[in-house]
Amino acid sequence: MNEFETLKTYHDSLPAPTSQATARARTLLAAAVEAETSPPRTSRRSRNAFRGGLVVALAAAMTAGVITLRQDDATYPLGTPPASAAELLRNAAAASARTDEPRQGQFTYVRRIDYLYYFGVGRGGSEWVSSQEVRREVWIPAADPDKALARSTFAKLVPVSGDSGEMSLPAEGTVEYQRAGQCPSSAALRVPAQDLGALPTDPDGLLRKVRADAEAAVRRKGPGAGAAPPSDDEIKRMIERTVVTRLFLLADTPLIDADTRATVFNALSRMPTATVVPDLSDPTGRRGVGASIRFQGPDGWEHEELIFEPKTYAFLGWRSWIEDEQADGTMKKTMSNATAVLETKVVDSMPEVPQDAKRPTSC
């Protein structure tokens, strides 16, 4: 038997790779390509050509069963859950960077569910929480994202705890249309109050900019009428809350491209309080893996969760929680916002706004 026959016999005796290992290998290889130490970004076409060469090497390497890849000076075995939130977010960044972008004349279509939460105090002094589910469809033109359109369908207001009484909200079955920029504070097409076109393209630069903008916004706001100036500790908490909130809104908004979202995920991986949650459900109950970032806001502890599909690292959604310390020292968690991204794809058209469409109530 010659050397080639020996190699073939050995190759054929090896077990085939699992689907989980294959998916994991592709993700880690792409993550290595997208690492910050790589050359400046090239066109998507040239990146895909380079990755095509890696797939050939991967096909041969996968027959060896258990293999490992190096990423950021660390070795990760294929087919295993992410060891840290930083690794998870880097993998999510690589997955986002591989997302297909629409061509001229096409549109990015996003189908999602937003869960809006309302808090208040009743006549008897008891606190109440209610929630409303809003199903949204968003179309973003490749040629002009400023002309994006959202269609929202409102469900019934549901009490979570206590009795909220009457509230002035869209009734069940209400359908609203909204254009980008029409309602800056709305959840349909919201973006942080900053110029998206001026965002840095590297994670560390983005984190520095978001933090500088947050500090400027907090200090510019100042105390309310008749209120005492906030302490240095309170200012620090407000800045931290603003940083995390803006990064999560950037990750969530459909108005940024895939490469920018990848940069946001990589920036979040730098947050020191980020932890990985191996088994986490999105608001619709889909099982995923999550990255949680906990911080002490001006009114107490809060934490935000990003949720990803455990094999492909596709973005499933996010959840926001408020934590209240109880008399026995335990922490009670209350959800304050949530979103589930059900579908993202490229389409060739978007609907017209009906002539009788009314101004959105959220404006």
Descriptive notes:
This is CU044_5270 family protein. Keywords: Membrane, Transmembrane, Transmembrane helix. The chain has about 375 residues and is an alpha+beta fold. The chain contains 7 helices and 11 strands. It has helices at about 5-15, 20-35, 45-60, 85-95, 205-220, 230-250, 260-270; strands at about 70, 75, 105-120, 125-140, 150-160, 175-180, 275-280, 285-295, 300-310, 315-325, 330-345. The chain has a 9-stranded antiparallel sheet, with helices on one face. Helix 5 crosses helix 7. It starts with a helix and ends in a 16-residue tail after the last strand. Mean pLDDT is about 75; it is low at about 1-80.
Blueprint (SSEs and pairs):
Elements: H1 3-13, H2 19-33, H3 44-61, E1 68-71, E2 74-77, H4 85-97, E3 107-121, E4 127-141, E5 149-161, E6 175-179, H5 203-221, H6 232-252, H7 258-268, E7 274-281, E8 287-297, E9 300-308, E10 315-325, E11 331-347
Antiparallel strand pairs: 1-2, 3-4, 3-11, 4-5, 5-6, 7-8, 8-9, 9-10, 10-11
Helix pairs in contact: 2-3, 2-4, 4-7, 5-6, 5-7, 6-7
Strands, count: 11
Distance from N terminus to C terminus (CA atoms, Å) equals 78 Å
- In percent, how much strand structure appears in the residues? 25-35%
- Average pLDDT score: 76
Name the poorly predicted regions.
1-79
Work out the helicity level.
25-40%
Shape: globular
